[in-house]
From TrEMBL, chain A:
GO terms for biological process: amino acid transport. The gene is urtB. The chain crosses the membrane at residues 44-72, 92-116, 128-150, 170-197, 225-251, 257-280. This is Urea ABC transporter permease subunit UrtB. The keyword Ligase does not apply.
From TrEMBL, chain B:
SMART domains: AAA (SM00382). The keyword Nucleotide-binding applies. One of its GO terms (biological process) is L-amino acid transport. Keywords: Amino-acid transport, ATP-binding, Nucleotide-binding, Transport. One of its GO terms (molecular function) is ATP hydrolysis activity. This is Urea ABC transporter ATP-binding subunit UrtE. Residues 3-232 form the ABC transporter domain. NCBIfam families: urea_trans_UrtE. InterPro entries: AAA+_ATPase, ABC_transporter-like_ATP-bd, ABC_transptr_urea_ATP-bd_UrtE, BCAA_Transport_ATP-bd_LivF, P-loop_NTPase. Belongs to the ABC transporter superfamily.
Length: 326, 232
């Protein structure tokens, strides 16, 4: 299920502690003073931005792993799911405050990603099709393991009190939680871009991406770069998971829904960080505005259609470097 | 002895390309590796860097056995590689390409070493230029600067004058001579230009079909020998 769908989940038990806040990205309330014409469109645009930020976090890790290592990680959705369960477990069993659950989810899921890379993925780098199958298999195993551990009933992550209010921004009334998600998205994207474009580690990654043999000839351990990049991508998925977990419900199968959107963002964006940012913004806005004009299902249909047409003319995505295009 | 190869056989897939190679190299020497196209000169340098699929035999560097060390560790023993075709990272700037070399340093220097800039004024003035936009000769300078940034004991140069304008060939020859005599950097150089080899080298290896067929001080590289192993 895509995020906006999940948020309207009907089967949610009434005793959910924070039911009214779980609307997350759907809760744009507009000030009364506003003219009736602009309000619905502003509403749709802002909803689009929040959809975009969620897709972006989910897509960022995927884009890093694909862009730097060339691995299409079919288990990425399950990394998101593990992030959500990590936060849920730490909050419910150990009483960890939600704000600490987010970095904890990063560390836990990054570590799981690291184990997966060391134990399996690294043996398959020369066989892309096998990575696809292997990571898909891993995704099934992870879903099943979580189901066996936590059961298949939905779990909830409590929203901290400080996020349970609204603020007036211009003429639009926004929930603090949504602003927090949006801000954290910006921080994560900026931090990732900084890491890749401004640090020695980032330079190692970019060197390995361009020419692995040359990178190795100048002392760069490509194996280590792959390992850390994979762990980083997984960790980002973990963060996405804890945020999604607080906006929607936590289920063993939740990853599958989000990862479809994340793949779309990566494909449309061409696998770069900047491409993912723009692509998630565009697809999020498209989806939201189309949904305003028509309805949710038809909007998604139109979005997919647009993407298919786009890929017909730009097979390498919107932002692929010129020579990669054909 | 700085570098020593002993009974080295090197493979691509299951095919041995280099066969039973052995030689010693001393500090400050300039060794020229000669031979026609396809005899295995590039493969020899790649074998020293650990870039072939597999090798047997021994490679010693400064007393350590590096035969099984992965490429990124070999770089840190003091091997500066200037590959055939230069292999500049086209998306990196000139500065980033030079900085790439610093990952092989043991002193942790993370800046462009002054030597790279003083040897190549053009690079010094165009540090932010994208490397893919440089001319062939400029890219060769950059490849040398990048290898120098590793603070190497040995430079491995694979046909450094290939495809470069004659006036720049001379310039690069002079730079290499300075590095060898003034800075005491040991060189292994593959060449098609006999003239450059004679000017720079003090020892030579002649290769044929993956084997060494003649060797000695450069003075012993007679025209007859060149005729036999290098004309087509
Ligand atoms: N990557 C490779 N895989 C398989 N064979 C190769 C590879 N590179 C070179 N060879 C073969 O090894 C032999 C030596 O090539 P090379 O070392 O490039 O010669 P040279 O540099 O002297 O011109 C050639 O016959 C070439 O076809
Ligand atoms: Mg060659």
């Amino acid at each position: 299920m895509p995020p906006s769908r999940l948020l309207k989940h009907k089967g949610r038990p009434r005793h959910a502690p924070d039911a009214q806040w779980r609307r997350g990205i759907g809760d744009v309330a507009l000030g009364n003073s506003l003219s009736a014409d602009i309000a619905p469109i502003a509403n749709a645009l802002i909803l689009g931005l929040s959809i975009a930020s969620i897709w972006l976090i989910a897509a960022l890790g995927l884009a890093i792993i694909y862009g730097a290592i060339g691995v299409i990680n079919m288990a990425h959705g399950e990394f998101i799911m593990l992030g959500a369960y990590t936060s849920y477990a730490l909050q419910s069993f150990f009483g960890l405050p939600f704000l600490l659950c987010i970095p904890a989810a990063f560390i836990v899921v990054a570590f799981i990603g690291l184990l997966l890379e060391r134990g399996l993925i690294r043996y398959l780098y020369k066989r892309p099709l096998d990575t696809l199958l292997a990571t898909w298999g891993v995704s099934l195993v992870l879903t099943q393991l979580v189901r066996l551990t936590f059961g298949s009933d939905p779990k909830y992550i409590a929203v901290p009190e400080m996020f349970q209010s609204n603020v007036q921004l211009g003429f639009v009334n926004l929930s603090v939680l949504r602003i927090f998600v949006f801000a954290l998205t910006i921080v994560l994207v900026a931090a990732t871009a900084f890491l890749f474009y401004r640090t020695r580690f980032g330079m190692q990654v970019r060197a390995v991406m361009q020419n692995k043999e040359m990178a190795a000839s100048f002392g760069i351990n490509a194996d280590r770069v792959y390992m850390l990049t994979f762990a980083l991508g997984a960790g980002l998925a973990g963060v996405a998971g804890s945020l999604l977990g607080v906006l929607a419900i936590v289920l063993p199968t939740m990853g599958t829904a989000y990862v479809v959107q994340a793949f779309l963002v990566v494909v449309v964006g061409g696998g770069t960080i900047l491409g993912s940012v723009v692509a998630s913004g565009l697809t999020g806005e498209f989806q939201s505005v189309l949904a305003y004009v028509t309805n949710e299902t038809f909007a998604r249909f139109l979005l997919y259609l647009l993407i298919v047409v786009l890929l017909r003319f730009r097979p390498a995505g919107l932002f692929a470097p010129a020579k990669a295009r054909r | 002895m700085l570098l020593g190869l002993d009974h080295v056989t090197s493979f691509y897939g299951k095919t041995p390309i280099l066969k039973d190679i052995g030689f010693d190299l001393h500090q400050g020497q300039c060794l020229c590796v000669l031979g026609r196209n396809g005899v295995g000169k590039t493969t020899l340098l790649r074998t020293i860097m650990g870039l072939t699929d597999r090798m047997t035999g021994d490679i010693q560097m400064s007393g350590a056995n590096i035969s099984t060390a992965p490429t990124h560790q070999r770089a840190k023993y003091g091997l500066g590689y200037i590959p055939q075709g230069r292999q500049i990272l086209a998306k990196f700037t000139v500065k980033e390409n030079i900085l790439l070399g610093t990952f092989a340093r043991s002193d942790g220097l993370g800046e462009v070493p002054p030597l790279c800039l003083s040897l190549f004024p053009y690079l010094a003035e165009n540090l932010e230029k994208q490397a893919g936009l440089l001319s062939g000769g400029q890219q060769q300078q950059l490849a040398i600067a990048r290898a120098l940034a590793t603070n190497p004991k040995i430079l491995l140069l694979d046909e450094p004058t290939e495809g470069i304008q004659p006036n720049i060939v001379h310039e690069i020859g002079q730079t290499l001579r300075r590095l060898n005599t003034e800075f005491g950097i040991t060189l292994i150089l593959t060449e098609q230009h006999i003239k450059v080899a004679r000017k720079l080298g003090d020892a030579f290896l002649m290769m044929e079909n993956g084997r060494i067929v003649a060797r000695g001080p450069i003075a012993e590289m007679t025209d007859e020998l060149v005729e036999r192993h290098m004309t087509i």
